[in-house]
């Protein structure tokens, strides 16, 4: 890390530390984001409010997420395009930490581009009235899927900034380089620890992929914040891979009571918002089949008797039962519990630190390592299902302006057609017609997105129509005849002589050393 970056981080931490010393009624720290960033905002606000409560202090953190609390559990991409809603949600902001990438795209209904908005926020940063977290970390494993590297880096940076600031306030001490480096090294230990379990993680990915290939499901059964990590991972599969909300689901003990979100219990909004273990046992468990995959996520400080009881109930329906748990060196998992699971990832950490902040460092280690494993499971499973083509989300759900633009880019990349031709093919796929009238062509992009968000295989259908120069119905028939999207597109590419062109284009676009 460069000295300049260290200075910027230290300056930010000092500002936040000053906030936490004030009365929270007068100074509120707001974490704000869309999608993955908004879910991280929720998770971090909850963690640091709990830390303050443990110190007999008032909560001084809050979060905002595009789409409101519904977006914590389900895909709500369209509200990301609504600037008026964003203004309404941020009216109460005094100090804000915003984190998201800025693009030069226009915002419908707004007079500025994303980049221009970011530049304005940069000016607020210079005045110490706001901060931007926008980590530049190179290409993602799945192009454009910032939920993995980008999300993890944002989590690390914010936890480092905020926890170090809290420690300085609590100890009435200054923030030092040593304090910063010690915190960052704790995350380096997470990397080393979790990668020592690569073989077992790969086994889980393989079995989860087999479940999705057979049109079965992946369920995460978690406790406390690790259960929330599971819910977050599941919610991101819909826009990223065009998955149905039932394909990957997460559940947490005590449901919304454990979530402690702004709007409380949302289970009345529909089954996709039911997240408690009670709902899982009553409604989901009776439907579980042998091909489903169930992953338990917990620590040895959780109620092991309850965990064992639920695990035996699940095992009666499927043998694809797996677990990831966290323990410290002085704890051992009961043998009868370990034997229930086909594969168990036992992540062992050094003895718990005694001070309050130390326990939170360890909690953050648990969360980050769990995030990495679940990201690997859900991403790897969808790769095996054929939802990724040449490192790209070929079957993404076109549910906001960002994803609409990405869909257009993918069509151009893999077919070599002009932007106008790809735009037309995308609309044909969205509206399931070969003839587009001028009215459809000229409506606002947001109208196309509203329709596209309800459709399946929009991008693959458009790719096939362009490659084969065929009708939408023929493209859909070709895709339906091959359950793996990647294989269907490969077959079309090979038959048209475009496969080699796509491979060469991918090679040409790789960055040096990638």
Automatic annotation (TrEMBL):
<protein>
    <recommendedName>
        <fullName>Glucokinase regulatory protein</fullName>
    </recommendedName>
</protein>
<dbReference type="Pfam" id="PF22198">
    <property type="entry name" value="GKRP_SIS_2"/>
</dbReference>
<dbReference type="Pfam" id="PF22645">
    <property type="entry name" value="GKRP_SIS_N"/>
</dbReference>
<dbReference type="GO" id="GO:0070095">
    <property type="term" value="F:fructose-6-phosphate binding"/>
</dbReference>
<dbReference type="InterPro" id="IPR040190">
    <property type="entry name" value="MURQ/GCKR"/>
</dbReference>
<dbReference type="GO" id="GO:0009750">
    <property type="term" value="P:response to fructose"/>
</dbReference>
<feature type="domain" description="SIS">
    <location>
        <begin position="17"/>
        <end position="95"/>
    </location>
</feature>
<dbReference type="InterPro" id="IPR005486">
    <property type="entry name" value="Glucokinase_regulatory_CS"/>
</dbReference>
<feature type="domain" description="Glucokinase regulatory protein second SIS">
    <location>
        <begin position="195"/>
        <end position="385"/>
    </location>
</feature>
<dbReference type="GO" id="GO:0005654">
    <property type="term" value="C:nucleoplasm"/>
</dbReference>
<dbReference type="GO" id="GO:0042593">
    <property type="term" value="P:glucose homeostasis"/>
</dbReference>
<dbReference type="GO" id="GO:0004857">
    <property type="term" value="F:enzyme inhibitor activity"/>
</dbReference>
<dbReference type="Pfam" id="PF20741">
    <property type="entry name" value="GKRP-like_C"/>
</dbReference>
<dbReference type="InterPro" id="IPR046348">
    <property type="entry name" value="SIS_dom_sf"/>
</dbReference>
<dbReference type="GO" id="GO:1901135">
    <property type="term" value="P:carbohydrate derivative metabolic process"/>
</dbReference>
<dbReference type="InterPro" id="IPR001347">
    <property type="entry name" value="SIS_dom"/>
</dbReference>
<dbReference type="GO" id="GO:0019899">
    <property type="term" value="F:enzyme binding"/>
</dbReference>
<dbReference type="InterPro" id="IPR054017">
    <property type="entry name" value="GKRP_SIS_2"/>
</dbReference>
<keyword id="KW-0119">Carbohydrate metabolism</keyword>
<dbReference type="GO" id="GO:0030246">
    <property type="term" value="F:carbohydrate binding"/>
</dbReference>
<dbReference type="GO" id="GO:0005829">
    <property type="term" value="C:cytosol"/>
</dbReference>
